[in-house]
Amino acid sequence: DELAEEANKERIDRAEQLDGLRLQVNALEDVLSRRWQERKGSVDTHNLAGAVMAVEASMSSGKALGPAVSALAGQCEGDVLVHAAIDSLPPSVREHGVMSKAQLLESLEEVKPAARELVLIPSGSSAGPITMVVARVAAALRVREDAGSGGSIESTLARVQGLIAADEVVAAAAELEDACKGTAAAPIVGEWVKAARERALVDQTLSVLQAQAITLTAAYTSQ
Fold first, then answer.
1. Structural contact between residues 146 and 162, judged by C-beta atoms closer than 8 angstroms
2. What is the largest CA-CA distance in the chain?
3. Which of 35, 118, 134, 146 is the most exposed place for a label (fewest CB within 10 A)?
C-alpha cells in the first residue's frame, strides 16, 4: 500500500510539473506570437509607406504609375480602402502617368496663343484665312487693352496659372473650360483640361493613400 501510495504521489507530482511546463510553454508561445505580429506590423506599415512614396515619386516625375501602383496593390492585398483608391485611377494614367505642376504650366504656355485667337471665333464657324487674321489682330489688341478686365481671356489665363501654383488644379481646369466653351478654342484647350483633371484625380488618390498609411502607422505604434 505504501508503494502504491508513493507511486500515486509521484504521478501527481509529475502531472503538476507537466502542467507547469505547459503553462510556461504557452506563455512563451504567446510572447513569441506577439513579437512576431509586432515585427510583421512594423514591416507592413514600413512597406506601405514606401509603396505610397513610390507612387508619389512617379506622379511628381510624370512617369507611368503602373509599376508603383502594382507594387502598392501587392503590398496591401487585404486593404479595401487602398484598392478602392487604386481602382479609381483610369488605365491611361497607369500607363502614361500624369503631368507634374511644372508640365501643366509649360503646356498652358503652349496653349495660350491659340486660345487667345480662337476664343474670339464661335464654335462651328469656318475659320478661313481672313477670319484667322482678324482673330489674331483682335487677340493682340485684347491682350493690351483687356489685361485688367476680369472677363478677358488674358485675365482667365492669369487666374488659371495662379490656381495651378496654389494646387487648385480642379478649379483651374473648370476656369479655362468655361472661358472657352462655345468657341473654336474649346477643342484646343480640351486636352489641357483633361490632363489637369487627371492630375487632380491622382492628387486626391494620393491623399487617400497617405492618410491610410498614417492611420495604420498610428494604430500600430499605439499598440
1. no
2. 127
3. 35
Q: CA Rg, the chain, in Å?
A: 32
Q: Which amino acid is residue 21, in one-letter code?
A: L
Amino acid at the residue 200: A
E strand or H helix at 148? none
Question: What cell does 21 get?
Answer: 511546463
Q: Is 208 helix (H, G, I), strand (E, B) or coil?
A: helix
Query: Which tens digits make up the pLDDT trace of 42-65?
Result: 546 667 778 888 888 888 887 888
End-to-end CA distance of the chain: 57
Q: Which one has a higher pLDDT value, 192 or 141?
A: 192
pTM summary value: 0.66
Give percent above pLDDT 70 in the chain. 66
Render the burial of 153-187: b for 16+ CB within 10 Å, e for the rest: bbebbebbbebbeeebbbbbbbbbbebbeebbbbe
For residue 3, pLDDT beyond 70: no
Q: Assign 122 to helix, strand or coil.
A: strand
Q: Nearest Cα to 180, choosing from 199, 154, 161?
A: 154
Residues 4, 8, 9, 10: what is their CA dihedral angle, to the nearest 10 degrees? 100
